[in-house]
Automatic annotation (TrEMBL):
Coiled coil: none annotated. It comes from the Bacteria. Gene3D superfamilies: ATP-grasp fold, A domain (3.30.1490.20), ATP-grasp fold, B domain (3.30.470.20). This is RimK family protein. InterPro entries: ATP-grasp, ATP-grasp_RimK-type, ATP_grasp_subdomain_1, RLAN_dom. The lineage of its organism: Bacteria, Pseudomonadati, Pseudomonadota, Alphaproteobacteria, Rhodospirillales. Signal peptide: none annotated. Residues 290-480 form the ATP-grasp domain. Keywords: ATP-binding, Nucleotide-binding. It comes from Skermanella cutis.
């Protein structure tokens, strides 16, 4: 006799010839514990439904009370009852899914459904996905709906019953059951509960995101290694923000959109937050930055704040070519180089339609810009960003909406010029103790701060080229430091 016990609603539900298995109905298992003949049974609950307080639910509940091993457990039943609960496991499963799809010579072209029987996939190409899903949710039969919208994602996880089996699936189920009941019983993988939870705000449609989808997964894995659960969220999740301990903004920030509102709400809730609202406020406005650097004697290109009247005399202060900027541009947007009076007046007139004041700045051509990443007043990475081909900026925006970027060189902090790093750290410290990307130019006149970014790029194969996974852990550790400080009565955000 097998050590396995199968629970079904009716004996007729189990149509498979397995005389070595003990079959019992939900009714008998609940009301007649003495009816179980198998000693120390390993129970597979194949009830038609696992709804809360239903017969299937009670079978799993009573098995645990009787110290019997059963799948699915009550925890699994509850986890799978709502997407808001099981979504914590989706990033890992989706990463496996996407990696598998990328390796396929002929991947699916549209949304599809996977069926998992004891972790065995009906489509063997996705065996690693269903295996991991079974490790996390020890559910005998699982329906995994996969959808394509911008990228592949798991839309839902749904427990199934024997009633749901199609005739063409019966052989696969039988083989999967045979393999499972003849294998050594293995408890599901249990991860230690996370110390903290963090929301990572991103925009899948952001054309120049500070971190790619692949990079977000690296942050998630770093969080797992350090005991903090990181979940990607989007604009639509605003009302859920208070569920988390921390917020990490990984999309382009602006004062007049949801990113600033998220930061403000997170701060109000007492969460650890990067970017904090003050950093967004200070970094996104180039007028503020220009005045801040000037007042603190941080070297920067000569900059003049222009109103419409000042345009007439700007050549007296800055020679051509002159760089004109709108105050809240990002990623080289809203930045224009003018060569003469005609271009100056035309470009300025267009920019004044968006802002009452603009910036005029002396032009400094260099083959590359320095970018120093600073976190809590400490440098964490250094890059050289080269100008786009045949262009004077790192990013060249074309009229058709496309863009081109120059190449890069990444180095360890200690490999970069000491003066560059020191000036960058000083400039970032004027903003706060968050995460910043300080852009600098270096020429025969010295080193000059061009810009301070509140949500600097951290991306796979670029900023992480030298530190690899350690870079992501550095960022996560800073969140943990702030959260630990909060629980100890110290300031938890910066």
């Amino acid at each position: 006799m097998s050590s396995h016990l199968i629970i079904v609603d009716r004996s007729s539900d189990f149509k498979f010839d397995r005389t070595d298995l003990e079959i019992i109905t939900t009714k008998d298992y609940i009301a007649r514990p003495d009816a179980v003949r198998t000693r120390n049974p390993k129970i597979v609950n194949l009830s038609r439904a696992y709804s809360y307080l239903g017969a299937g639910y009670y079978c799993s509940l009573l098995a645990e009370a009787r110290t019997q091993k059963i799948i699915p457990s009550v925890k699994t039943i509850l986890d799978l009852s709502q997407k808001s609960i099981y979504r914590y496991a989706l990033p890992e499963l989706e990463e496996l899914l996407r990696r598998r799809l990328k390796r396929m010579a002929q991947p699916p072209e549209a949304s599809f459904t996977l069926y998992s029987f004891f972790g065995s996939a009906d489509d063997r190409r996705f065996q690693d996905v269903t295996r991991r899903a079974f490790d996390v949710f020890r559910c005998p039969m699982l329906k995994i709906q996969v959808r394509l919208k911008d990228d592949w994602h798991i839309h839902s996880l749904q427990p199934l019953s024997l009633d749901d089996l199609r005739p063409d699936q019966e052989d696969h189920f039988r083989a999967s059951l045979d393999a499972y009941t003849k294998a050594t019983w293995r408890e599901p993988t249990e991860k230690a509960p996370p110390r903290y939870t963090m929301a990572m705000l991103h925009n899948p449609k952001d054309e120049l995101p500070p971190s790619s989808a692949k990079t977000l997964q690296k942050f998630i894995r770093a969080g797992e290694a350090l005991g903090i659960a990181i979940e990607p969220i989007e604009k639509k999740d605003y009302l859920r923000l208070a569920e988390y301990d921390a917020l990490f903004i990984r999309e382009t920030t602006s004062l007049d959109d949801h990113t600033y509102r998220f930061a403000k709400k997170a701060e109000k809730e007492g969460m650890a937050v990067i970017d904090d609202p003050n950093s967004i406020l200070r970094c996104t406005n180039k007028v503020y930055l220009a005045e801040l650097l000037r007042a603190n004697k941080v070297p920067a290109p000569k900059t003049v704040i222009l109103d419409k009247a000042k345009v007439a005399t700007i050549e007296q202060d800055i020679p051509y070519p002159i760089v004109l900027k709108i105050p809240d541009g990002s990623f080289s947007r809203g930045v224009f180089k003018v060569q003469n009076r005609g271009e100056l007046e035309a470009t300025a007139a267009a920019l004044f339609e968006e802002s009452d004041v603009i910036l005029a700045q002396e032009f400094m051509y260099t083959e590359f810009d320095w970018r120093v990443g600073v976190l809590n007043r400490q440098p964490i990475f250094v890059c050289q960003y080269l100008m786009a081909k045949k262009h004077w900026q790192i990013v060249k925006h074309n009229s058709d909406g496309r863009f081109e970027q120059g190449s890069f060189k990444t180095m360890l902090v200690e490999e970069a010029p000491k003066a560059v790093v020191e000036i960058a750290v000083k400039a970032a410290g004027l903003i706060g103790n968050g995460l910043y990307g300080v852009d600098l130019k270096q020429n025969d006149r010295g080193i000059f701060v061009i810009e301070i970014n509140d949500n600097p790029n951290i991306d796979t194969g670029v900023e992480d080229l030298r530190l690899k996974d350690e870079l992501y852990k550095i960022v996560v550790r800073e969140f943990i430091r702030r959260l630990d400080g909060r629980t100890n009565g110290e300031a938890g955000r910066g």
